[in-house]
Amino acid sequence: MGRAKRNDGSNLSSEALDALRSSVSGKVVVKGQSPEEEYRPLIERWNRMHIKEANIIVLPESEEDVSATIKFVAEHNLDVSISSGRHTYSGPSSGYGLIIDLRKLRQVRIDEENMTAVVQGGCTAGEVESAAEAVGLRPVMGAVNATGCGGITTGGGIGNLSAQHGLVADNLLAARVALADGRIVVASDEENQDLFWGIRGGGSNFGLVTEFTYKLHKADPEIYSGFFMLPADKADAYFELMNTLYQDYIMKSNGKFACIGFVAAVGGNIAPGFLVWYDGPEEEAKKFVQPIIDLGPVYPGSGAHMQRHTESTDWAHFEKLFPPAYNRIVGTSTQMSYPLSADILKKTAQEFKAVVSRHPENLFVSKLMIDLRDYSKIASVPLDATAYANRREGCMIAADFIWDKEELDKEVMQAAKGFMSQVRTWVKEDGEQRGIADVGTHVAATTLYALITDGDEKLVSVFGPNIGRMKELKKKYDPNVMWDKWYPVDPDV
Ligand SMILES: Cc1cc2nc3c(=O)[nH]c(=O)nc-3n(C[C@H](O)[C@H](O)[C@H](O)COP(=O)(O)OP(=O)(O)OC[C@H]3O[C@@H](n4cnc5c(N)ncnc54)[C@H](O)[C@@H]3O)c2cc1C
Question: FAD-binding PCMH-type domain spans which residues (predicted)?
Fold first, then answer.
């Protein structure tokens, strides 16, 4: 039991590969055997730093295919990864062994009457949003609709509707899960409740979700959303506005107003901005963004307007900000308690600028995010109700360092770690001084959001007090640690 050394499949005989091919209806693509033009696109990842040359990629077309592939993995003790939207920061959907690539499992079925969506495990958030929007409903998904349902749901999932409806995982009603022995089971409040607990925040530790059933919400077709970009000389006022914006606007909006401060470092300056969403009519929305406009002048071409919800989460908006070549990324995050210290925010921005300034021509699309959303709905769920352990009413501070040159990988990764470690120290010291080290509803909640990390955090920082139960579940559902890519729990350690 426990973590065993797995093989990468490079020594599999042609008979074994033929047996795999004949056990599934979907494609089996093999490195060096399948045409390059078929193989290469399959190992592409949003974060190009995590492109790995997997030996075998299976593209299941049914649950039976998933099941047969898992049995093959177990039989040959293969290294295995699951890939859904391939949009993770830290690379757990990449590997050198066998990839179960869910891109062919993309059906969405909406039940308008019961307000639910039954979604196959390879769907993107956008596919669910579009299908729901067509009948006046909305799921809870993340800010960017290109992310896969697989990663965002099993890791927790925070979106612009989370202040009203909680995490993506909190809106999961049931799932069908392929276990390490290839069996497919239902996980819900009625069946396999322990597994249902584990897949809501425990990532891929317990199995591969072939189908999610989500709760949907009635909604107006449009939302007020956009970016407000502000001049560099307003940076100090910008950081000083954060507490007012949070306390007097966001927390008084019944969850309708969500806002993320976006800071770039351009030309040696701090360039501040806000991404906003208001889930209500424009006249109402304008009152909420007025303090941002008052900071002005707002850069021409930036600003918010009424748009379809699916338009507000469209990846195309974001792509304009990120040249496609700049896709080597490290994401790190921490959490700060309210009221925020403007002083720490300013120091954090300066430190962020210092890292970017080492290679400005490469790191200029990097961004610092100050997430001013109302987390009380998420924090109202008891910490032991699901595996997700970051339920607190803090402000997430996250940084994405983005570059394009492979030779900078090591240096930027290290700089990102050093940066976040410094910020965490400031936050901790400040919290201790003010006696607010932990003001979350749940005292023992963790202080990081595991979906925005470099993948290298301690397990206890990710799962907090839920780690013990995670280990029990791992023993039951994956004792040989087949699923070992995203914060894998070892039942024996
Ligand atoms: C541009 C961008 C914007 C983002 N915005 C947000 C946001 O607003 N809110 C937020 O919460 N997060 C956000 N994230 C983080 C994102 O939610 C995670 O990176 C998530 O893991 C992506 O899921 P994926 O399926 O696309 O990733 P993949 O790389 O395919 O998989 C990621 C992990 O999930 C596991 N997994 C995938 N599918 C399944 C499945 N069916 N069953 C079991 N395990 C599975 C994989 O094994 C892997 O460990 C963002 C990421 C990016 C790149």
Answer: 49-219
pLDDT of residue 325: 66
Residue 456 buriedness (CB in 10 A; 0-12 / 13-18 / 19+)? exposed
Ligand 1, atom nearest to 94 Cα: 29
| 143 Cβ closer than 6 Å to some ligand 1 atom | yes
Strands (E), 152-286: 172-178, 184-188, 208-215, 217-218, 222-229, 257-266, 269-278
User: In the predicted model, what is the mean pLDDT of residues 337-355?
Assistant: 95
Nearest ligand 1 atom to the CA of 83 is 30
Q: Which among 110, 25, 107, 35 is positioned nearest to 69, based on CA atoms?
A: 25
Q: Does position 440 have pLDDT exceeding 50, yes or no?
A: no
Domains of the chain listed by start with CATH number: 14-101 (3.30.43.10), 108-219 (3.30.465.10), 222-434 (3.40.462.20)
Q: Mean of the pLDDT values across residues 35-59?
A: 96
Q: Which of 84, 366, 448 to mutate to test the pocket of ligand 1 (most atoms within 8 A of CB)?
A: 84
Residue 404 has pLDDT above 70, yes or no: yes
Would you state the pLDDT for residue 492? 85
The CA distance from 490 to 3, in Å, is: 7
Where does 247-336 show beta strands of DSSP type E?
257-266, 269-278, 303-308, 328-336
Q: Which residue in 219, 218, 221, 223 sits closest to 282, CA to CA?
A: 223
Cβ contact 422:368 at 8 Å: no
Mean pLDDT of 30-55: 96
Residue found under tokens 């800071």: 263
- Give the whole-angstrom CA distance, residue 442 versus residue 453: 22
